[in-house]
Amino acid sequence: MAQRLMTTLTPGDLDHTLSRITAAAVEALPETDYASITILHADGRLETVAPTNDVLWGVDAAQYELREGPCYEAAADEVHVASPDLARDERFPRYAVSAVAAGLRAQAGIRLFDAPKSRGALNLYSENVGAFSDLGALGELFRHQAAMAIDYAREIQNLREAVRTRTMIGTAVGIVMERYHLTDDRAFAFLTRLSQDGNIKLREIARRLIAATHG
């Protein structure tokens, strides 16, 4: 099972990785009919990504609006939340009405990551009462493998962004060198001064200059 999860969750770009995580959850975790991921952003905004079924858009949104439910709790407060019988769960009386109406009878939320600017939780849904009573070692293994895949995908994304930024700044330096007949060091210093004086990121200064030159 461990090898199967590692193969299923081979990292790619971040969006693709998140989609593979929810698809793998439905495939690998017992009695999981649907899955999604909740992202809690630094500004308090909650966002659903990679749902395996369209019904989850509304179900997740209900939890965000009510500030109630396993997926909200896992993203905001708890590391792991399970509700094997939503209809009888006294913790989520308002949300349970929406969930049961959508045909969902059990649910679990598992914290996937804590990043400086966001938190993420995996939401598991079942149409069967009694599901997720004990995810146990398999749930922890899945969480661990999924978190590793997300970390790796983020690292690759950051590296790609760094390369794009460096390329963009290099292009802008070349434009300034040609336009004002400066050395590369002085052209870079010129862009840096514009960035500092305008309190604008150097990458944005470079982007604007390139757009103005080639627009």
How would you explain this protein's 3D organization?
- The protein is an alpha+beta fold and 215 residues long.
- It has 2 domains: 2-158, Beta-Lactamase (2-Layer Sandwich); 165-214, Arc Repressor Mutant, subunit A (Orthogonal Bundle), CATH 1.10.10.
- Helix content is 57%, strand content 16%.
- The protein is built from 8 helices and 5 strands.
- The chain has helices spanning 2-8, 14-28, 55-66, 70-76, 93-101, 136-180, 184-198, 202-214; strands spanning 34-41, 46-49, 80-83, 106-115, 118-126.
- A 5-stranded antiparallel β-sheet has the order 2-1-5-4-3, with helices on both faces.
- Strand 1 (34-41) and strand 2 form a beta hairpin.
- Helix 2 (14-28) runs antiparallel to helix 6 (136-180), helix 6 (136-180) crosses helix 8 (202-214) and helix 7 crosses helix 8 (202-214).
- The radius of gyration is 23 Å and the shape is elongated.
- The N and C termini lie far apart (54 Å).
- The mean pLDDT is 86.
